[in-house]
Design goal:
5 helices; 3-stranded antiparallel sheet; alpha+beta; 34% helix; 157 residues; 2 domains; two-stranded antiparallel sheet; globular; disordered C terminus
Amino acid sequence: MMVLSRKKNEGIAIGDDVTVTVLEIRGDKVRLAITCPSQIPVHRQEVYEIIHGRRTSKPLPRSPEELAFLQGILEEPDDEGIRLIFADWLEEHGNILGEFIRIQCQLHCCRRGTSVGLTSKGENEACGVSTNMSGGRTYPRSSGMHPSSGASSRPST
């Protein structure tokens, strides 16, 4: 294992095709930019472990808020807006499954024949999610799952 130190806006080259740059350091979080060819998959370690079946920890007990989201999804299985709100909530609470749910929604939209990538304003609106002026997501209140109980909408990371 190689250990390197980098400051903000400094990078690391890995071979000829991959560059990792430190974009921001905020508290105990570091935002990285990774430049690489599109055929090279890039995942956070914990997502990689789930994809490849190497989950090492037991699932944690579910909170009442999480149970409410799950109940909403069961009651409205075709409402992708609820799933995306839940994905935001999970990510805000440090749960990597939020990214997984977002990808599932994206794949579901692709199977329906729509070109929804859930990353741009037009694409998000196709699934009932719109982007406000500051880049945060807004959700229809009619879904019953608006993040008003302490969870706020935020742009994806």
